[in-house]
Design goal:
six-stranded mixed β-sheet; 39% helix; globular; alpha/beta
Length: 133
């Protein structure tokens, strides 16, 4: 069920599996503030729906602006998620992209209180999310 939709993101929540799905938008310096606001909206919905599992699709996301700005908002997003009851985040990615290498470095610097795994296909990600904690 679609629980939120605007020009940047669409949040699709499956209550039966407790999985929130969304696709990350492209990021450039112009839309960086909107991206930051969208990530706050995602965290708000995670909190309101008490979501435990997230499927984040970043395969089509391009970083068209500064890497530092993107790293900052990603750090803030994961810190905000740590204040919720999220247990697992499955990231759908394109391996070895500049974006993915930046995210890996950023997450490696953090002490995240939930599991984060990267996948290149939806089936593997969903299987992992649905597996017993």
């Amino acid at each position: 069920m679609i629980i939120f939709k605007n020009g940047f993101i669409e949040l699709d929540y499956e209550p039966a599996t407790d999985i929130l799905r969304f696709e990350m938008p492209n990021v450039d310096d112009v839309v960086m503030p909107e991206m930051k606001r969208c990530l706050k909206v995602i965290v708000e919905h995670v909190r309101n729906y008490d979501v435990k599992r997230i499927l984040l699709d970043a395969r089509k996301t391009d970083i068209l602006g500064g890497n530092e700005g993107y790293a900052t908002i990603i750090t803030e997003f994961y810190r905000d998620l740590m204040l919720t009851r999220v247990r697992r985040v499955a990231r759908l990615v394109t391996p070895e992209s500049i974006r993915e290498n930046l995210v890996k470095r950023t997450l490696a610097k953090m002490n995240i209180s939930f599991e984060v795994q990267a996948f290149t296909d939806t089936d593997s990600a969903m299987k992992w999310l649905k597996s017993t904690d």
